[in-house]
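Sequence only, no structure available. Ideas?
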Amino acid sequence: MKNYKLKIDYDGTRYYGWEHQPDRDTIQGKLETVLARMTDVPASGIALIGAGRTDAGVHARGMVASVFLETPLSCGEIRDYMNRYLPDDIAVTEVKEASERFHARYKAVGKIYRYTCFDGPVKPVFDRRYYTPLPQEADVEKMREAAAFLIGEHDFKSFCGNSHMKKSTVRRLDEIVIERRRGYLYLTFHGSGFLQNMVRIMTGTLLEVGMGRMEPERVGVILAARDRKLAGPTAPAKGLCLRKVEY
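Reply:
I predicted one. Tokens follow.
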């Protein structure tokens, strides 16, 4: 058997997230079903490991997964076979042989997520599944001021959606870039790793600042408090996209 590294794009709109769930459509489930068909083994015999577990409704342009397979097919043939049988909203963009020790999740050293909003005058109809509309124009400068409090290594418990988290909630956030282009507002987060709902909660909190409902300095207070109830709302899933996994 060989270990393979897969790069995957998907529109998460109609899926219950990445991770396999019984009787629910998930990205991992769809991929494992096709790999099982390709290798003529039961789906339970395929152990596809994703670099992360995106939430229901979240998208990806660059998810990475690893899987051990026994197949005579070349990497290009594996990619083509999978794309032939996968639904139209999932695509395998690349397949490469990897070392036996490569693990898509544990070997990852960084991830880049982008959250997309729109606060322009005319809503873009054909992108409606991929952005969150805002009721007014956001104050980008204040959002950038607030974002500065989040940069560095901190305990991000206030921005974790799992209140029963047993493991450490310390993470390193390297950069937050907030920019506006043609009515779109993009928030790009680059960090070592992210907690459950972390990017969406940070986005929701920064948008509170952008809407004038919270002062930028408040974000530093929320971070230090380690209390999810003090942070802003969890931004809708449809605006979030995993852009890159770094190794």
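The chain has a mean pLDDT of 97.
Hope that gets you unstuck.
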